[in-house]
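ok trying this again, last paste got cut off
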Amino acid sequence: MLLIPAIDLKEGRCVRLKQGLMEQATVFSDSPAETALHWFKQGARRLHLVDLNGAFAGVPQNFPAIKDILAAVAKDIPVQLGGGIRDLEAIEKYLDLGLNDVIIGTAAVKNPDFVREACKTFPGQIIVGLDAKDGMVAIDGWATVTEHHVIDLAKRFEDDGVNSIIYTDIGRDGMMSGVNIDATVKLAQAVAIPVIASGGLTNLDDIRALCAVEKHGVAGAITGRAIYEGSIDFAQAQQLADSLA
């Protein structure tokens, strides 16, 4: 069970939102690169970046901060990024800087052919991010809830070559209310692609619960507010996950 620290970027700073609401942002750092180095030193084996402004604008917005993070840690650990990526040029630009994986979210829903094209152009480096509220996929920075059920949509991407699916329960994100284990397992069992859980990770009991369902295809978990506010010690949590593997 791989635990992945999240660095959410808003106007060049490291923040956390509650349920994706930009007006509910808490600033944790003015130096995202230093934050990335901190989690690397704590034992992180991968980092998860989100360009929040990009997710709402539909084009990358935090390029300087992302560039600084990649310069600081990309030589040591893989970094994945989502938010505002809608074309192949944006993907290529980030991969050339050392990004390991690109997460396609809104564009995957609006234009599924883009996922297929991206997987062919950049094999093994594309992740699909599906964010759901009550099982229904949301897009445009979670501002719009669609009529697509998350499992139905995930199945469309099984044969495209995506390396994993990040599943975020919007109702849990940033709320410190625990991971939606049941929904995550149902998705993982429904598709042949590894699923990474996101939203609600709160304490070591969540780590234990996730490790218990790893066999169903839940390969990792993204953690944000819990490690910034201290309800989870990241190094301790990854050691626990390793011991339960």
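PB: full thing came through this time. The longest strand covers residues 2-10.
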